[in-house]
Every structure is written in C-alpha cells, then in structure tokens.
Amino acid sequence: MKESRPAFDEMMRQVRRGRFAAIRIWALDRLARSLRQLLDISLELQRLNVDLVAVKQDLDTSTPSGRLVFGVLSTVAEFERDLLRERVRAGIAQARRAGKRIGRPPLRKLTAGEIAELRRERSRTKMPFRDLAAKYGVSVFTAHALVHAKRG
Questions:
Q1: Domains of the chain (ranges plus CATH)?
Q2: Are 29 and 79 in contact (CB under 8 A)?
Q3: What is the SS3 assignment for 22?
Q4: Predicted pLDDT of residue 104
Q5: 3-class state of residue 33 by DSSP
Q6: 62-89: b (≥16 Cβ within 10 Å) or e
Q7: pTM of the model
Q8: What is d(CA 31, CA 57) in angstroms, rounded to the nearest whole number?
C-alpha cells in the first residue's frame, strides 16, 4: 500500500488553513484505504466544518442522510477491499500449490559454466554484484543468490 501521498497531504494542509468548505472526490476508496483511515479523515473534516462529496457514490455529508450513507458505504468499501485481498492471496496460494512460478520470469538462465565463471569472478575480483548482474544479464538478486548458493 502506498503510504506517501503528497497531494493528499497538501490538500489536508489547505483544509486545515480553512481554504475549503467542501472536498469533492471521485470515490471513497480513492480517499482512504481502510475504514479507520476514512473515519479519521471524515472526523477531521467534520471538526473543521468541511463537507465531503463523493461523486461515484452520490454522497454529500452536508446532509443527515448523506452522513448515514457515508457510514454504510465506508463499511462496504472496506469489506470489498478485504474480499479482494483474500481472493488475491487465495489465488496466489493455489497457483503455488499447482507449481506455478510467482513473480517475474528470470532475465535469462545461466549455464553451469557461466555460473562457475560468475562465482570465480566475484571471488577473484570482488566485483560488485550490480556489475556482475549487468555483465551476465541477470538481476542483482540472482547474482547474489548464485554466488552464495550452496554448491552441490
């Protein structure tokens, strides 16, 4: 989850300075990633007398019914995110059980001779892993793993 939100932080600075009477957003899930975060933002806006309007949900917290709908929609939005997260995790777990490789494919597969050469070069010259990776066309992680892998 993205923690750094410069545009949001700047908007909230402006809200705290009294520059807005209302905040208009596309959807609630674009404002916050959890019910707790959404409620915290909502409470701060309420404390500052700033209304929240969510276009997609046709929500306006300046009305009592809008505040009620906001509470319900906030809960539903978090529920949907949790369901999606569970489905993604279950799908990844199922793929792993089925023997599928998760993640990006390797940049290239090294031969046994290339692996031995890479190890010798690292041992002999202490070439940085970044340079080894570039030379052999693999990721830095792969170069490091190959050098430190148990030989057997």
A1: 6-97 (3.40.50.1390), 112-148 (no CATH)
A2: no
A3: strand
A4: 79
A5: coil
A6: eeeebbebbeebbeebbeeeeeeeeeee
A7: 0.47
A8: 13
123-141 residues labelled b (16+ CB within 10 A) or e (exposed): eeeebebeebbeebebbee
CA pair distance 22, 15, nearest whole angstrom: 9
Q: Is 2 a residue whose pLDDT tops 70?
A: no
Question: How many residues can be counted in the chain?
Answer: 152
Q: For the chain, give the mean pLDDT.
A: 89
Q: How is residue 101 annotated by DSSP?
A: P
Helix, coil or strand: residue 42: helix
Torsion sign, CA atoms 66, 72, 78, 83? negative
